[in-house]
TrEMBL record:
Globally modulates RNA abundance by binding to RNase E (Rne) and regulating its endonucleolytic activity. Can modulate Rne action in a substrate-dependent manner by altering the composition of the degradosome. It is found in: Cytoplasm. Keywords: Cytoplasm. This is Regulator of ribonuclease activity B. The keyword Cytoplasm applies. One of its GO terms (cellular component) is cytoplasm. Gene3D superfamilies: RraB-like. GO terms for molecular function: endoribonuclease inhibitor activity; enzyme binding. It holds the Pfam family RraB.
């Protein structure tokens, strides 16, 4: 669930994530992100064992998350890790995101993988990337 040398109980970790969720939402809103938009909330999960990560990914899918393809990476010490993102669309509602986090933290604990928080992208009229629908309209 978390790094071995920084182990927290599941409950304490979820509480820490609730604070982090509110900080992320506030930072997005402070930057002018659209409070009414739907956001792709990307939750990050890691494991040293690909087969275990794969089982966690299947379970995340069963919980209603879109599971992105697993990738291989290294931690800061050069150890090989496997990771995937579990995504779900949501407004910037802290309680809704808290529920997503709690489900995935419990999943991480069950499969002994690392839940590494969540992120999303700025949404607004001045966003620096085109929306898929806008690209389709421009090509027509």
């Amino acid at each position: 669930m978390s790094h071995e040398d920084e182990y927290l109980s599941v409950e304490a970790f979820i509480e820490m994530q609730k604070e982090e969720t509110r900080d992320i939402i506030q930072a997005l809103l402070d930057d002018g992100s659209d409070p009414e938009a739907l956001y792709d909330i990307e939750h990050h999960l890691f494991a040293e064992d690909f087969e275990i990560l794969e089982k966690a990914a299947v379970e995340a899918f069963k919980l209603g998350f879109e599971v992105l393809e697993a990738e291989e990476t290294e931690d800061e010490d050069g150890h090989r890790l496997f990771c995937f993102d579990a995504t779900m669309q949501s407004v910037l509602d802290p309680q809704a995101i808290d529920q997503q986090v709690a489900k995935l933290v419990e999943l991480a604990e069950k499969f002994d993988v690392i839940y590494d928080g969540w992120g999303t992208y700025y949404e607004g009229e001045d966003a620096l990337y085109p929306e898929e629908d806008d690209e389709d309209e421009e090509q027509a």
